[in-house]
Design brief:
Blueprint (H helix, E strand, L loop, with lengths): L8 H28 L15 E3 L6 H18 L4 E13 L1 E12 L2 E12 L4 E9 L7
Antiparallel strand pairs: 1-2, 2-3, 3-4, 4-5
Keywords: Protease inhibitor, Thiol protease inhibitor
InterPro entries: Cystatin, Cystatin_dom, Cystatin_sf, Prot_inh_cystat_CS
Protein name: Cysteine proteinase inhibitor
Length: 142
């Protein structure tokens, strides 16, 4: 090469490619080490889309109203006279809206029975639907 001339671009490309490749390798190594040695953590208690999580306050007005709504819908659909006793357990699941999985006790002709129900809610559409209501096959006695 003659003095005063610059290197052709084709000779500069390998250095740039090498730099990018080394940067990616170092970044991957640092991230792997970060998770491997516990410096970075993923919180496993965070709710995931579609994941189901417990509702701890069973006495909350909203969840109580949803349980009673499900029972009322069942009574209308089946022409029955179940009477709400108490909410035993409730979970929520993020879907297109929220799906509530509830276990409740209801009085059927003087006998208390346990039922499983699901209510789908889309508040932005003013939508609420009982999607399932059945006698529970699980013993919920304490």
């Amino acid at each position: 090469m003659m003095k005063g001339t610059t290197k052709p671009k084709s000779m500069m490309i390998p250095k740039t490619t090498t730099f990018i490749a080394m940067s990616l390798v170092i970044t991957a190594f640092l991230l792997l080490g970060c998770f491997q040695f516990g410096i970075c953590r993923i919180d496993k208690t965070t709710a995931k889309m579609g994941g189901i999580r417990d509702i701890n306050n069973l006495n909350g007005i909203e969840i109580q109203n949803l349980a009673r709504f499900a029972l009322d819908q069942h009574n209308k659909k089946e022409n029955s006279l179940l009477k709400f006793v108490r909410l035993v357990k409730a979970k929520e699941q993020v879907v297109a809206g929220m799906l509530y999985h509830m276990t409740l006790e209801a009085n059927d002709a003087g006998k208390t029975k346990v039922y499983e129900t699901k209510v789908w809610v889309k508040p932005w559409m003013n939508f609420k639907e009982m999607t399932e209501f059945k006698v529970s096959d699980v013993d919920h006695s304490v």
